[in-house]
Every structure is written in structure tokens, then in C-alpha cells.
Predict the structure of Acyl-CoA N-acyltransferase.
Amino acid sequence: MLSSEKDNNFCFPIPDVLENDKVKLVPFIPSKHAKALVKGFDENTWNYLSYGPFTSVEQFVEDFWEKGIRANPATTSFTIMDKAGPLEANGEPAIAGIVSYINSSDRDACTEIGFVVILPQFQRTHVTSNMVGLLMHYALDLPEQGGLGLRRLQWVCNAKNAPSLKVAERMGFRFEGVLRWSRVLPPSKSIGYKAAPERKGDPRAGKGGRDSAYSSCCWDDWEGGVRDWVDKVMRRTK
């Protein structure tokens, strides 16, 4: 049976909902959200991600959620819902994807938007920009504004993932550079895969890797105009 409990292990307070008139983010709960998500995944979902694919709802919940998210106080996940479309039979907006805060640190006042999966029918719509904007507001707004008041929010993706890089740029993140050979990947990750040189004695021979592109939005960027820019992007995105 899938768990009906939300994450209670994150290092920051988890809001019950983050929303505007177009998108709603709620804490991921396996019993409510996992089946619709897994049903919506396709063969391209995992191209640039370091995890997946998953062959069943149970595998997704166990390997991604229980081991990868819930057990780690630096991570938590939100289900993305599309408020601009028709409601589902249960009266809720349609599930459009999943996103996480990862690599979070209360001590260092930072977090990262990661593990982003937008289901195919919601890609290149208002969903991504509004989802990212809501997470930027919660991370970087001051507590008196309803946020966490963090100093750094980062966006890290496969350096070959042009759509992800474009999202970061559109939402006001500042490109910082590329960390080469940052991760080891299995050969099954053929897209975004960097072939490994067969160095004699390499303990991971036969496995390639990836270069990771780093972008960030820090508190001074946010206060210096990015906050207003993000609000403008969210208002104009259809």
C-alpha cells in the first residue's frame, strides 16, 4: 500500500500549498499522486536525469521517494498541478509533474530546484515558468513576505540539456559555469551522456558521465530586480 504521509524530514518548513492563479504546488504524497505521475511518464522523461526510468509505481515510490527524497533532510518534493485547465474527477487540478528542493542547507541558507519532471502534455506551457517562480519566491522571499529568506538558490542541469538551461535563463538565474565530469552515468543514459575515456585501471570502466551546468539566483540578484522580472514572466506566461 502506498504511503499517505507527506515528507516530515526536510530541513526547512514545508508549506501545505504554494500557488497562484495558474499553478498549484503541494507536498508529494504517494497515495494521492504517484499513480498519475507514473502513468504520465514517457520514454523521454529521464533523458537528462541521473535517475530513472521506473517500471512501476512501487519502484518509483521506493527508489525515488523513500530512498532518494524522504530519507534525506536536504530534499523534499512537490506535486505540480495545472490550475488553468479542467479539474479532474476528484475536483483537483490535473497533475502536471513533480519538482524538488534538493541540496538544501539551513546552515548555509541555500537550496536548489531540481529533479524537475514536467509531463509531456504540459511542456512548453505556463506550467514550468509558474512552478519555478513559486519556488523562487518561497526560497528567496524574506520570512515577513512568506518565504525562507535564503541567500542562494541554484539550478544545476546536464550541460547538454538546452531546454533546462533556457528555463534558468528565462527565470533570471545567472549562469556560473560548467563542472566537468561531475557525475558517473550508466550507459543506458545515452542522451546527455559523455563517453568515458577507457583509462587503464579506471574502476568505473565502461561508464560515462556528465558535465553539469550551474546557474544561481542569490538574494542580491532577487532584490536587485529578478523578483520583479519573475513576477512579470509569471503574469505573461499563457
About this structure: The CA atoms of residues 86 and 93 lie 7 Å apart.
